[in-house]
From TrEMBL:
Spans annotated as Disordered: 146-170
UniProt source species: Campylobacter concisus UNSWCS
Name recorded for this polypeptide: Phage replisome organiser N-terminal domain-containing protein
Record-annotated Phage replisome organiser N-terminal domain positions: 7-123
Length: 170
């Protein structure tokens, strides 16, 4: 069975959202904001729903256990979230976070493998396109060396001609 990887996408202005500003303005608001983010993360693999398993007597107590927060903070936070429309109590004791679906993403192992394969294929194709481009520099270097050799040979020939010419005149 392949693994699925989930992520939470936060908007750039997440902390400027009026609902989050309202949460942060109350006493303990920073803790409540953290609780909200933890709830979003817990609900990622269930399309924004946190199911009540019955481990604790209430959903609030169970969530507090699952996210390692104090039950009193979770109760207060959930009341605020519900009043702002960030949380809805569903069937039974289940809790739904309406914004979770729009803030989450998912990728399976196979999707990751295919994405990486396509990236490698793109690199190979790019390398094939650049194959003929780099050979131009090699020719320039060889031509310069040939010109230098020709100039050196010409200078040596001229120098030896001058020396022979002096010998004949003396």
């Amino acid at each position: 069975m392949s693994k699925a990887y989930y992520w939470l996408k936060l908007k750039k202005d997440f902390f400027d959202d009026p609902k989050i500003l309202k949460i942060r303005s109350v006493a303990g608001g920073d803790t409540y904001t953290c609780i909200y983010l933890k709830l979003l993360l817990k609900s990622l693999d269930n399309d924004g729903v946190i199911f009540f398993d019955g481990i604790e007597p209430t959903i609030e107590a169970e969530i507090a256990l699952k996210i390692r927060e104090q039950e009193i903070n979770v109760k207060a936070a959930m009341a605020i979230f519900e009043s702002l429309g960030l949380l809805q109590k569903g069937e039974g004791e289940d809790v739904r976070l309406p914004e979770a679906a729009s803030l989450s993403g998912k990728e399976c192992d196979s999707a990751k493998r295919v994405r990486e394969f396509r990236a490698r294929q793109k690199e190979v194709k790019a390398l094939h396109c650049n194959g003929a481009v780099t050979s131009g520099n090699e020719n320039v270097t060889l031509e310069l060396e040939k010109e230098l050799e020709t100039e050196t040979e010409t200078e040596e020939a001229n120098a030896s001609t001058c020396v022979r010419g002096r010998e004949k005149t003396s």
